[in-house]
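Entry for pyridoxal-5'-phosphate complex. Fields follow.
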Amino acid sequence: MYDFKNSIDRRKTNSLKWDVGDNELPMWVADMDFKTAPEIVEAIHKKADQSIFGYEEPSEDYFNAVANWYEKEHDSRPDTDWMLFVTGVVPAISSIVRRVTSVGDNVLVQAPVYNIFYNSILNNGRHVISNDLAFDGVKYQIDFNDLEEKLSDPLTTLMILCNPHNPIGKVWSREELTKIARLCKKYHVKLLSDEIHGDITFDPYTPAFSLDKELIQNLMVCVSPSKTFNVAAIHAATIIIPNENLRNIVDRGINSEELAEPNSFAMPVSIAAYEKGHAWLAELKQQILDNKQLVQDFLESELPDVKLISSDATYLLWLDTSKISDDSKKLASFIRAKTGLYLSSGDVYGGDGYDFLRMNIACPIETVKDGLKRLKQGIEMYR
Ligand SMILES: Cc1ncc(COP(=O)(O)O)c(C=O)c1O
């Protein structure tokens, strides 16, 4: 039994999430209020006790731990030869954009999507092209005709896929992934699949590297223990690239940009997480399901005009607030100013995000109750 009931006070500890006013309740950035697994903390203590923090390189044990984790958790074992260590998923994405595309190219995303993808594309002088996800009022789907049209544009050279998808919380099925990979192959578009949320899934998740061999030759997959175990500031991630030529190109990029060297804690934390974190993750997932059920029940009985979009992954809830406002930025700032509840405004994710708020429920259930109370107050006052 691990502790998912208590959280520690992170105000004034340089926490990005908790750098807020005294009465404010942050439920925005994807960072959990649960302590990480004690097995990981033990590995950190052991490393600290060694008292030497010299240069390091990724170890064979690390790559084996990643492969074993995917085999045990997700029934699919990536070859360790396919892997590159990198200091984060966002640094990897930006580096890949620079290495495998040219200035002025189109990089395709599926809005609404993780807002930092836009930074990685635009800050490097590439254009964003979006295959907006189609929302029917209940669920999202991929418009494959639109996707094909946009991939067939000769200026489109890279697609960034988010699986599971942040912020809508959807796990793409093997059939959907196969269709996407086929289209990318047909139009010679490289496919970068960000699977950082792949472990917190409630429906089977298919790592893209497990697709048919002929569909993974232009594929790059990014994974990390950072979301799963709440260790984002450890800065450890893996890029999995089955094709040797493409892997060498990306490897040169991350090395010349100095993104390939682990800090002192990256190896012990990742290895402990991947080798000893299975039971902790199982309990975390149960807690997230309980929290989500609470939100669902509360909204149905107390706030029926706010709809929770059904999801099968992540601790990020996508709340449809279109009946309240079509300006989520204004709504989110109003709720924060009046009640202290700090949610992510959906507009930053592009697409139809102006109709949504994103709520992070990776916190003790008492905190979720507090957040819901504030949400109700804020929405009533807004009206
Ligand atoms: C889809 C997605 N990719 C990447 C990241 C961040 O990755 P990293 O901290 O490894 O740069 C996040 C964080 O929320 C995310 O949601």
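NOTE: The domain at 52-275 is CATH 3.40.640.10 (Aspartate Aminotransferase; domain 2).
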